[in-house]
Amino acid sequence: MTRLHATPDDAVACPPIAVGLIEGMLDAVWLVDARSLRVVAANMAAARLMAVDAAQLVGCDVLELSATPEDLYFWGDVAAGVSDRIESETYVRRFDGATVAVTRRVSRLHLAPGHTLYIVTVHDRSEQRRVEDELETRVAELSAALESTADGILVTDLAGRIRSFNHTFARQWGVPEELLARRDDDALLDWMRRSVADPAGYMRRLAAIDAAPTLEASDTIVLRSGSVLERVTLPQCSRGQPFGRVYSFRDISERLQTLRRIDTLSHTDTLTGFANRRVPSALR
Predict the structure, then answer these.
(1) Rounded distance, CA 126 to CA 102, Å?
(2) pLDDT tens by residue, 129-171
(3) Distance (Å, rounded) from C-alpha 195 to C-alpha 90?
(4) What pairs with residue 228 in β-bridges?
(5) How far apart, in whole angstroms, are the C-alpha atoms of residue 84 and residue 104?
(6) Domain for residue 135, yes or no?
């Protein structure tokens, strides 16, 4: 038996095999004596996680390493004999006061009659948390960018499932709030189909776009409401491979009306209201 931690009141011995076992683990691991709730052994991964020498961990009260009420309550239950295992995402407190996001699992280990340890396995989630936070920031930035554009935006994956859209898109297509709240892709796509003046032609064109993942296209869509939308679609690509599609919609109804008025005026006499007659280009 190897004595890793001892106090005048309760000396604790830890088998060498247990020490060798935890040293071979990739995750941070420390062993906690069930009676004193003090660390009796820790591997090098634990030392790196806690930013101290492994020897400094030995002898620590396990509560000193706890950073959340959940852990404090758990070890209180262990001391009271009403709990012996837990697994969840939590935080540990390093010796410099910093907290580290981890997944922590605690289970009981019976070594001999009257000799019980708790094995605490801790997986460092700080890098995963950093990536998640960065992704959340990028999603927020993308959402802000989508809402700041004057065009309606619809983003789908290659299977046609809706990934994102902005409020301008919903307004252009007259999508009811109740339908938006449902987040029902099929219902929303069906609403779009029923909103166009030529549903059959709309679906044929959409099928052609879906069949060509790298296609870039521009179309004009007439809605039953009378609005006319210009649709531009581009593939979303990563490392040269398409993984989705972006549709942008611009309401060109007013522009078309203006062009029609200009065309009408250019062919109408403003005084008589009749169509202009051609004037001979040269006098005879």
Answers:
(1) 7
(2) 888 888 888 877 777 877 778 899 999 999 989 999 999 999 9
(3) 49
(4) 222
(5) 14
(6) no
Cα dihedral sign, 50-52-57-61: negative
Residue matched to tokens 């046609």: 160
Separation of alpha carbons 239 and 121, rounded Å = 37
Contacts of 150 by beta carbon, 8 Å cutoff, 6+ apart: 168, 250
The domain that holds 205 is classified in CATH as: 3.30.450.20
**Do 164 and 100 have their domain in common?**
no
209: domain range?
A: 149-266
Number of domains in the chain: 2
Strand partners, 246: 155, 234
Answer yes or no: are the C-beta atoms of 253 and 228 closer than 8 Å.
yes
Nearest to 112 by CA among 9, 12, 36, 25: 12
Spatial separation of the C-alpha atoms in residues 147 and 124, rounded to whole Å: 36
Distance CA 237, CA 258 (A): 37
Span 68-79, pLDDT tens digits: 999 999 999 998
**Under DSSP, is residue 191 helix (H, G, I), strand (E, B) or coil?**
helix
Residues 95 and 202 in one domain: no
57 domain-assigned: yes
Same domain, 114 and 162: no
